[in-house]
Design goal:
Layout: E1 21-25, H1 30-41, E2 46-51, H2 54-67, E3 76-80, H3 86-99, E4 105-108, H4 127-154, E5 158-163, H5 168-174, H6 184-189, H7 196-217, E6 223-229, H8 246-256, H9 260-274, E7 281-284, E8 287-288, H10 298-315
Parallel strand pairs: 1-2, 1-4, 2-3, 4-5, 5-6, 6-7
Antiparallel strand pairs: 7-8
Helix pairs in contact: 1-9, 3-4, 4-7, 5-7, 7-10
Length: 328
């Protein structure tokens, strides 16, 4: 990450989210809370905070209602979502399908990382990969038909913004990736390959590879998707780091971090400003990042295809019927 980040322009005065509905995962803290606050300022009709902790979500909800006292209380809703568990993801999706007829924007922001040693999720995968990548894929694919159906009801194409990271670049440069002859998920589940400071970037590389492949199969007339790296923003992402790292993290954030408000502006920029032109693009700050040369090589293209295929097999273990998505 750069030690000096460029200025962040606010969203234009013409930007609006009036009378629309958004889901923000991890909307109770950090960038997610900043996005939630900004959407309310832009006159969001229904804001769903998808969070793991009911108490922390309710605290964030009450704080937001206090900031926007004219809002009806049911403007901000909490729905339980624990990305450590496929069952929780599926229960969340079932609630959305039942209770929320139109979803205009899905922000995939939540995830956990920087565990001192390899930890295993409820699904028996390394937790960073589970929460940053696999469960986000399941959530996205499971909601995709509902997002598409939203257009028939609202007349608007729904948007998905996935929070990514340029921390993928050193991972590519160092080539800390699975070999061609080994399972991708098996590689990341192996404790021998776990390095705390590399795993976040590795998980985001999987996200980007899957994102690129999905967008090739999904036209912008169905759902508009983008990925955004908002740069260094002071969040709770490093909360699991060993204590010895905490002073360094504190100093780093003090020197270079952006506020969550500025992070929110960058996360919302593709969907609210760029619109349909953001489909399939990975944004670094407010600008589209060129496709990394790695993905244009035979090795990069092969990895992207393998990530897609192995992930879709993993998704097939759930109750999600991938054939019905028309993406194979």
């Amino acid at each position: 990450m750069r030690l000096r980040q460029p200025p962040v322009p606010p969203l234009p005065s013409s930007a609006t989210f009036r009378d629309r509905t958004a889901i923000v995962t991890g909307g109770n803290t950090g960038i997610g809370l900043g996005v939630a606050r900004e959407l309310l300022r832009l006159q969001c009709k229904t804001l769903i905070l998808a969070c793991r902790s009911p108490s922390r979500a309710e605290s964030a909800r009450q704080s937001l209602l206090a900031e926007f006292p004219s809002l009806p209380p049911d403007t901000i809703q909490f729905k339980s979502l624990d990305l450590d568990s496929y069952t929780s993801v599926q229960n969340f999706v079932a609630e959305i399908r039942r209770d929320v007829p139109v979803v205009d924007l899905l922000v995939l922001n939540a995830g956990a990382g920087f565990f001192p040693t390899l930890e295993t999720s409820a699904e028996h995968h390394e937790r960073t990969i589970q929460t940053m990548y696999l469960s986000n894929v399941l959530l996205l694919l499971s909601l995709l038909p509902h997002l598409e159906a939203s257009k028939d009801k609202s007349g608007r194409v729904s948007h998905v913004t996935w929070v990514g990271s340029r921390m993928i670049y050193p991972i590519i440069q160092k080539n800390v990736l699975p070999a061609d002859d080994e399972s991708i998920l098996g590689y990341f589940d192996n404790p021998e390959h776990y390095v705390m400071m590399e795993r976040y970037g590795q998980s985001k590389l999987l996200c980007l590879a899957f994102f690129y492949e999905l967008c090739q199969r999904l036209g912008r007339d169905r759902v508009i998707m983008n990925m955004v790296c908002p740069g260094a923003v002071a969040t709770e992402l490093a909360r699991y780091m060993p204590l010895v790292y905490k002073p360094l993290v504190w100093v780093y954030y003090k020197l270079v971090n952006r506020t969550t408000e500025k992070g929110a502006w960058l996360v919302l920029n593709p969907s609210l400003v760029a619109g349909a032109h953001s489909h399939g693009a990975f944004y670094g700050d407010e600008n589209v990042e060129p496709v990394h040369p790695f993905f244009k090589t035979e090795a990069g293209s092969h990895l992207q295809r393998r990530v897609w295929e192995e992930t879709m097999v993993e998704m097939g273990k759930t109750q999600l019927v991938t054939d019905s998505l028309g993406l194979n």
